[in-house]
Amino acid sequence: KQEVTQIPAALSVPEGENLVLNCSFTDSAIYNLQWFRQDPGKGLTSLLLIQSSQREQTSGRLNASLDKSSGRSTLYIAASQPGDSATYLCAVLSGGGADGLTFGKGTHLIIQP
Amino acid sequence: DGGITQSPKYLFRKEGQNVTLSCEQNLNHDAMYWYRQDPGQGLRLIYYSQIVNDFQKGDIAEGYSVSREKKESFPLTVTSAQKNPTAFYLCASSIGGQGENTEAFFGQGTRLTVV
Questions:
Q1: Would an 8 Å CB–CB cutoff place B53 in contact with chain A?
Q2: How far is A103 from chain B (nearest CA, A)?
């Protein structure tokens, strides 16, 4: 059964720093990996989708990489801002007959002004 | 405005009562999903539907029921058999299937509390 782990569980950094969030998964037979943002009491907003055949995707100050063979993805946030404070979730869409996404527990990010 | 609409935003349930959470999408997506989110546990799949009039149990389906009579709608009923229903419920949709382009989109959630 696919398992997704996110490290660290929480992170607090000063504004302006570049930072990296990590996501690992146990079964490399995935179709894609998505990074989401969740604000308190809100739904999930899709940030980036990386297809299994891709190595990275970029959107503005966000860059996500995927190393399927090692079961790892990273989300790089450049020049962090207080508005980036949120919980970041990664999720994989797996093969093997499973349906739906398998989620990590998230990284709670606080950017200090 | 295209997207997924969940209602109500907050819902209170008395012991022994069934309640229904609404999820509507206008993205023309075939697949729809219900997830439950608890603090420290991440999101867990309750039910999913890949096509109208068909749905499958997820990892934690006990105490829940769904229907998919229309492509746009996938309501979730939390029955009295669900012993610990207090949680944040999220509905999602996608184009369906299991392909590299299958991207999930989420609603704003419904917070259910047992009183």
A1: no
A2: 6
